Amino acid sequence: CGHRAAAPYDDLEYWDFNWRKGGGSNRMIEISKREHFYQQEYCGCAYSLRDTNNFRRSQGREPIKIGFKYYGDEPVE
Fold this sequence. Notes:
Blueprint (H helix, E strand, L loop, with lengths): L1 H5 L17 H12 L10 H13 L19
């Protein structure tokens, strides 16, 4: 699906790399920080957001602010 979605755009490449093998997770974070990718702190569904925010509140932390946290930026708390 990713390849089909990217195909109409000449300057867009879909990466189908397995980031979890051979140190790929660390490389993914390195690239994400360099490129200032958005850092989503939950899986994306409403239930995960609810549960994550409930857990954060139980730990005395602020709830997630959607669209505000990026890799490579100083955390905003």
